[in-house]
Amino acid sequence: MVNRKDLNPDSSPRAAYGARLRRHRENRGWTQEQLADRLGLSSQHVSAVETARKPPTLPFSRKADDAFGVANTAESFERQWRDIRHGNLLEGFPEYVGLEGRAVEIRLFTVGVIPGLLQTPAYARALADDHVRRGRIAHELAEERVTLVAERQKVLAQPRPPIAMAVLDEGCIRRRVGGEKVMREQLAHLEEFAARPNTTLQIAPFGIGERRPFDLPIYLLTMADRSMVAYTESHAQGHLERESGFVLAALADYHQLQAESLSQAESVAMSNQVRKGAP
User: Fold this and answer.
1) Are the C-beta atoms of residues 91 and 10 closer than 8 Å to each other?
2) What pLDDT digit, counting tens, does each position of 214-273 carry?
């Protein structure tokens, strides 16, 4: 293609939006002119959004959702627009969510908080409501966060769900979020997750100390073509990484983490003990 501009989706939320718009268009074999016809806009407008020269708008995003058939899903362009507009999600996370929905294997590790894929609605709402109380986000954005958690979890209920491996730091199950009732339900949900045929749940106990290779959350995705993507985040920033050297090193560390962690049976037993109030 003449004058095709390479896109770096990690450079900004607007660039991530443009890269995903281009990917959806090309996956359907459409030219910019053909997509523009479906949106009722000019091809120059489509090109400017794809290359991040023009910011997406709410009307544009809704038209894109209709054109691609992704309204009210985790792939929704309107949802991504709202994330950009309000700063609702960390950099790189909207694109990660799109990849997560197509992954054949999901590996994750989190510290302190149950990850979104494994959260109950009440647990997710408790976290979102706390952000509202602290003035971090508006109530409307809290609702969107809870909705996004539910949308992401649909990937685990597909007819052919991905293999999902979760290693949680012990603090995830001992940190009380939302009160006793919410935590009891959340821990029971973790135990139900572990019982599925396509999932693995392990707890990384406090006792492994410095042998725990990760200090921050990390997500590793294997796609249908066996390529891998890593997503990492700190308190203030997220980063999507495709470079094979980084991803393979992270995968090796993840294997070490699994070896150091409790077995699934031991992990479920620990969760059950915490849920019933045992020390």
Assistant:
1) yes
2) 999 999 999 999 999 999 987 667 788 989 999 999 999 999 999 999 999 999 999 999
Residues facing residue 105 across a β-bridge? 163, 222
Residue type, 163: I
pLDDT per residue over 52-105, tens digit each?
A: 888 888 889 999 999 999 988 878 998 888 777 655 566 667 778 888 989 999
Q: What is the sign of the dihedral through the CA atoms of 159, 123, 216 and 209?
A: negative
From 1.20.950.20, 3.30.870.10, 1.10.443.10, 3.40.50.10490, which CATH number describes the 91-118+151-275 domain? 3.30.870.10
**Domain residue ranges of the chain, discontinuous segments joined by +:** 9-87, 91-118+151-275
User: How many residues belong to the chain?
Assistant: 279
Q: Virtual CA dihedral for 151, 156, 157, 161, nearest 10 degrees?
A: 130
CB 221 within 8 A of CB 105: yes
CATH of domain 9-87: 1.10.260.40
User: Structure pTM?
Assistant: 0.69
Backbone φ and ψ of 30, nearest 5°: -95, 145
The closest alpha carbon to 63, from 52, 77, 49, belongs to 77
CA distance 182 to 120: 8
Contact (Cβ atoms closer than 8 angstroms) between residue 204 and residue 168: yes
Residue 234 burial class via C-beta count within 10 angstroms: exposed 0-12, middle 13-18, buried 19 and up: exposed
